[in-house]
Amino acid sequence: MKRSRWPAPILVLLCCGVVARSGTGPAAPAAAERIKIQEARLPQIEAVATREREQVQQWYQSRRAALAWEIARPEAARIRSSQRALWVQYADMYFNRPYEPPYFNIGFNPSLQTALLGEAMVEEYLTHEMADLLVDRDFEQKLVQLVEERREVGIPSTTDRTDNGIALSSLLRARAQELLNIVRQVRAQLDVGLAQLENQRKARLDAIMEWEKDLKGQVRGILEYLRQTESRPARFGVVESVGYCPTSGYYCTIEGVDRVLGVGDRVGSVRILKIDPEKVEFAKDGTTWAQTLGAPPQPFWET
């Protein structure tokens, strides 16, 4: 039978989604019952795979937001506090958002410790707001407009004939260019980080798809085997299939035993010593032997 690489959550489903038998011939369920059990696993596998994909998407969205903050915050903290305050206020006015200067009421005659705490709160607020602006594409576009002098009416431009107007325009353009350089540096770092994150997301989704495909193939192989043997009595002890879990190693299924078995597991007095892709080694009462996939069972399985 085909071997597959089972993900841990799906393997748990495969192990727990059936009734665990002791493994003796008379106690094993009929072929029809075992076929029904295997058929029920296919939609269960799909449900688990869907749940795994949803968890990957949740991880991706959370990590994406955290990545933007991790890159933008240090850059925001390097900008002078006075400049941060001005740009935050400007952005609030530009985006037509209510602006309230960062102020914390510390009461009359505050202690030095209280005053320092209030200052720290203001710094944290401005850093947070500035970090958001550094990754805001609308704000980036506004900076480009300022640098290129495509500004709304009311802000002086270099075409104004007053010295004061020209000076104000030049100062605004220079500061906007400085901030735009920082924004573009943050954007470049963020693009690299997001590309790596997207690759990780795709790798996880591809792995889930591979696991789902392989496990379904394993179940379908067992179903085919069971349907072929439905007309004859079960050959208790035949190695039906071998599967592989990256976290736990090889597993196998034994005809007449309706559960997945690993190294060290017992079926009655028979213990599994080793599982390879094409054979399984057993031990009973001091005797050891090996059986290949589909080979007739050794007489040691007889009760």
Topology:
Layout: H1 8-16, H2 31-78, H3 81-94, H4 112-134, H5 137-147, H6 163-228, E1 239-245, E2 249-254, E3 261-262, E4 266-267, E5 270-275, E6 279-284, E7 287-292
Antiparallel strand pairs: 1-2, 2-3, 4-5, 5-6, 6-7
Short description:
The chain has 303 residues and is an alpha+beta fold. The protein has helices at 8-16, 31-78, 81-94, 112-134, 137-147, 163-228, and strands at residues 239-245, 249-254, 261-262, 266-267, 270-275, 279-284, 287-292. Mean pLDDT is 79; it is low at 1-28 and 150-162.
3D architecture notes:
- The structure is a single chain.
- The protein has 303 residues and is α+β, with helices and mostly antiparallel strands.
- It has two domains: 1-28 and 234-303, no CATH class; 59-204, no CATH class.
- Helices cover 56% and strands 12% of the residues.
- The chain has six helices and seven strands.
- The strands form two sheets. A four-stranded antiparallel β-sheet has the order 4-5-6-7, with no helix packed on it.
Low-confidence stretches: 1-28, 150-162
Number of helices: 6
Q: Return the average pLDDT rounded to an integer.
A: 79
Largest sheet data: 4 strands, antiparallel
Our count of domains comes out at 2
Series of H and E elements: HHHHHHEEEEEEE
**Alpha-beta content class:** alpha+beta
Distance between the termini: 26 Å
What Rg, in angstroms, do the CA atoms define? Answer: 34 Å
Salient structural properties:
four-stranded antiparallel beta sheet, alpha+beta, 2 domains, three-stranded antiparallel beta sheet, 303 residues, 6 helices
